[in-house]
Design brief:
The complex is a heterodimer of chains A (173) and B (182). With 173 residues, chain A is an all-alpha fold. Chain A has helices at 4-13, 19-31, 33-51, 61-104, 106-125, 130-172. Among the domains of chain A are: 4-51, no CATH class; 75-105; 135-173. Chain B has a domain at 1-92: Orthogonal Bundle (Rna Polymerase Sigma Factor, Chain: A). Chain B is globular, with a radius of gyration of 18 Å. Chain B is 75% helix and 0% strand. Chain B has 9 helices and no strands. Classes of the chains: A mainly alpha (173), B mainly alpha (182). The A-B interface holds A 11-14, 37-39, 41-42, 44-46, 48-50, 52-58, 61-62, 64-66, 68-69, 72, 76 and B 17, 20-21, 24-25, 28-30, 32-33, 36-37, 42, 45-46, 49-50, 53-54, 57-58, 116, 119-120, 122-123, 126, 138-139, 142-143, 166-167, 170-171, 173-178, 181. The structure holds zinc ion (ZN).
Chain lengths: 173, 182
């Protein structure tokens, strides 16, 4: 003997019932108003959902898709480029910082200082030969100053790019 | 459910934009409809449908051509809408207010339109009482004929979880008219 709750479950479950169970259910529904209403409501509401009309997008959906595709593809490429630049800049910063650490580390500081003072001594002694010396040092000096200029540009770029990226991310969120 | 030729899908998968535009054209209605029924807002449904196609386009390599394409694209839409719905989480009072807005009071409408709007409102009320996932499950089952297993795979649930969600959703659908007819 099934209880009323079990019949209710049968109605809501949508599992296939055996012929004998189907018979028992319809017998119960004939005499139980609450189960009858439940089944009618369920069937009507589900039929209503199944038969309700499809809502279509506003005309021109495909054209809007094509615009979006072009725009998003460009954005994706840009963000990939920025990521690449940031990666290279990061690597360069790490390299320059680590080389600074090596040159100015306590172990090497004496060495570096000695070399610098030697150089200064040399400059002081050979001040009259400065002109010749400068011509010798021209290329290393050029490289050094170009390097610092590039480094400065790099840091400015890193700052600017991270500001732009942060703005972009905020806009996205 | 509509189907598209495997050739077009393959071409789109290889990055052909025109083939993909054909896919968009073919699936715009079911995808938009699902988004609309999940979000109940034109603007958001449009955005969600566009986002669905973008996700499909940029993750096309993940599509397994042995499976139904419509199941795949609809599940992307359902996932996206569930996330969107969770983000906005409108308090229930607000839902009721916006629901009444659907019938404008000013101009009298032709009878057909009145009936259609009443039906729309009824459907909206039915769906509004379900949680996002239950709503997606009901829509996928009764509108798009997904099986329990397909719903489970596409909403990242177990099959028994789908069964109990559908049971619960059917129960609340069956009780809605109860309350109204009393
Ligand atoms: Zn009963």
């Amino acid at each position: 003997m099934n209880t009323h709750e079990e019949f209710e479950r049968w109605i809501l479950e949508e599992e296939a019932l055996s012929p004998e169970e189907t018979q028992r259910l319809s017998r119960h529904i004939a005499e139980c108003e609450s189960c009858r209403t439940l089944q009618e409501n369920l069937n009507q509401n589900l039929a209503f959902i199944k038969n309700s009309s499809m809502i279509k997008p506003a005309a021109g959906f495909v054209a809007r898709w094509q615009q979006q595709l072009a725009l998003r593809t460009k954005e994706k490429q840009e963000s990939e480029r920025i990521r690449l630049i940031l990666g290279v800049l990061g690597l360069m910063s790490v390299l320059s910082i680590s080389s600074c650490l090596v040159i100015f580390s306590p172990g090497n500081l004496v060495n570096t200082g000695l070399r610098l003072s030697n150089l200064l001594k040399l400059v002081a002694i050979n001040i009259h030969q400065l002109k010749t010396m400068l011509s010798v040092l021209k290329i290393p000096l050029l490289i050094f100053s170009a390097g610092s200029v590039i480094l400065m540009i790099v840091y400015v770029l890193v700052g600017a790019l991270s500001a732009v990226t942060i703005k972009r991310i905020r806009k996205g969120a | 459910m509509i189907n598209i030729s495997p050739d077009i899908i393959e071409q789109a998968q290889n990055g052909d934009e025109e083939s993909f535009a054909l896919i968009v054209e073919t699936y715009q209605n079911p995808v938009y409809n699902l988004c609309y029924r999940m979000l109940y807002n034109d603007r958001e449904a449009e955005d969600a449908a566009q986002e669905t196609f973008w996700k499909a386009w940029s993750n096309f390599s993940k599509y397994d051509s042995n499976r139904s394409f419509s199941t795949w694209i609809l599940s992307i839409a359902a996932h996206h809408c569930i996330d969107q719905q969770r983000k906005k989480r409108v308090p229930e009072v607000e839902i009721d207010e916006t629901m009444e807005e659907i019938i404008p009071e000013r101009t009298p409408l032709p009878e057909d339109d009145v009936i259609r709007q009443e039906e729309e409102l009824r459907l909206k009320k039915m769906l509004a009482q379900l949680s996002e996932i239950d709503r997606a499950a009901i829509l996928l089952r009764y509108w798009y004929d997904f099986s329990d297993r397909e719903i489970a795979e596409n909403l990242s649930l177990s099959e028994s979880a789908v069964k109990s969600r559908l049971f619960r959703a059917r129960k609340s659908l069956a009780q809605l008219w109860y309350e109204r007819s009393e």
